[in-house]
TrEMBL record:
InterPro entries assigned to the protein according to its UniProt record, in alphabetical order: Creatinase/aminopeptidase-like (IPR036005), Pept_M24 (IPR000994), X-Pro_aminopeptidase_P (IPR050422)
UniProt cross-references to Gene3D superfamilies, sorted A to Z: Creatinase/methionine aminopeptidase superfamily (3.90.230.10)
Family annotation (Pfam families): Creatinase_N_2, Peptidase_M24
PANTHER family: XAA-PRO AMINOPEPTIDASE 1
Boundaries of every Peptidase M24 domain copy: 71-162
UniProt protein name: Peptidase M24 domain-containing protein
Source taxon at top rank: Eukaryota
Signal peptide, first to last residue: none
Lineage of the organism: Eukaryota, Sar, Alveolata, Dinophyceae, Suessiales
Length: 162
């Protein structure tokens, strides 16, 4: 890929050095996507020389999936849905049976069920499990020592993904 880019006249620089490369790009036309370029780089490009400010075609190219990719996504979503449904059914039965669960227990059980699925690599973000009023706290992250105990009197917010 790098050879093809270099052959086409595209320069590739390490991210940590990109601002310096842009400042020395006088006479070179730089393409930047205004929705994907941070302000510091935008300023560096402006000082370095001419630029083209257009959406990057890469996002739309990556969005086009072939049949294998589509089937892989469907399969992954089915496995993830099965794991999540299994975890929720198990947790619901525990709570309705009088068992004690905390917000952290929900996170652990959902992750455990997902991890048992073929192809699981990791959660895509930290699970947000908020019971009752905790569900209204933006990006709430339950900690074992202060996690709320679940009951039947309030809703449970579960925001998770793998």
């Amino acid at each position: 890929v790098l050879f093809s880019l270099e052959t086409a006249g595209v320069e590739v620089h390490p991210y940590a050095e990109i601002d310096a490369a842009l400042l020395t790009s006088k006479g070179c036309k730089v393409w930047m996507d205004p929705k994907q370029t941070n302000f510091a780089l935008y300023l560096a490009v402006g000082q370095g020389g001419p630029h083209v400010s257009l959406p990057s075609p890469l996002a739309s190219m990556k969005a086009c999936k072939n049949s294998s990719e589509l089937e892989g996504m469907r399969s992954a979503h089915r496995r993830d849905a099965a794991a999540l449904c299994s975890a929720l059914a198990h947790l619901e039965a525990l709570v309705q049976g009088g068992g004690t669960l905390t917000e952290v227990d929900v996170d652990v059980e959902v992750t455990r069920r997902r991890a048992a699925q073929w192809g699981y690599m990791d959660n895509s973000f930290d699970t947000i499990t908020g019971y009752g009023a905790n569900g209204a706290i933006v990006h709430y992250r339950a900690k074992r020592e202060q996690a709320a105990t679940l009951g039947l009197s309030a809703p449970l917010l579960l925001d998770s993904g793998a």
